[in-house]
Amino acid sequence: MTSPAPIRCQMQYEADIKGLTKPAITFLKENGHTSIVSLGCGQQVNRIDNHLRLMVGLNLNYYVGIDCSPYIEMVSENLFMDPDNMTALLAQYYRGGPRRFWKAVNFFPGTFVEEFAGVHCAIVVCQRVYPDFLGGPDPIHESKTGAPGGPTRL
Asked: Which range marks the domain in which residue 115 is found?
C-alpha cells in the first residue's frame, strides 16, 4: 500500500491592522477544550510532527498557533521532519483526506500570551519565551552581582 502524496501548502496569516486579538480569545473560549495550542509558534511554523502526534493521540479538533509576531506562515518544506509519516498519520486521522488538516489550523499573529488568563485549552506547547521583549530584566542572563561575567540568576 502506498502512502498518500505529502501535503504541500503555504499559508500566511497577518495581524489585524488594529491589533485586535479578541478573535483568538473568543475562539479558544469556544474551542480550547478541543485544541492544541502552540504559544510562541514563531513567524514560520515548522517541525510540528510531535504536535500532530499529540493532536491525533488525544483526538483534538484544532491546531492553534499564537505569536506576538505580525504574521505567521506555514511553509511546507519545513512543516514536518518526516513528511511521509505525518501525511500518512493525517490521512488515517481524517479518513483519507489529510488536506482536511488545513481547516483545523488557526493562527493568531500579533497576540500576546498575557491576554489569555483564564482561558483553558486541552494542550499548550510553549515554543519561545522573550523575557526582555517588553523591556524587563532578562532573568537568565542578568548577573546577581550586577557585574559582567558574574553568576547568572535562574
From this structure: 10-126
How far is residue 53's CA from residue 40's CA, in Å, rounded to a whole number? 19
**Helices (H), ranges, the chain:** 22-31, 49-57, 76-79, 83-93, 101-104
- ∠ CA 36-40-41, rounded to 5°: 65
How many Å separate Cα 30 from the centre of its chain? 18
Q: Which three cell numbers stand for residue 75?
A: 511553509
CB-count burial class (<10 Å; 0-12, 13-18, 19+) for 124:
middle
42-98 tens-digit pLDDT: 888 989 999 999 999 999 999 999 998 888 988 778 899 999 999 999 999 999 888
pTM of the full predicted structure?
Answer: 0.71
C-alpha cell at 26: 473568543
Nearest C-alpha neighbor of 127 from the set 62, 71, 51: 51
* Within-domain flag for 105: yes
DSSP assignment of 89-102: HHHHHTTT-GGGHH
Helices and strands: H and E segment counts in the chain: 5, 7
Grid-cell match 483526506, residue found: 97
Q: How many domains does the chain have?
A: 1
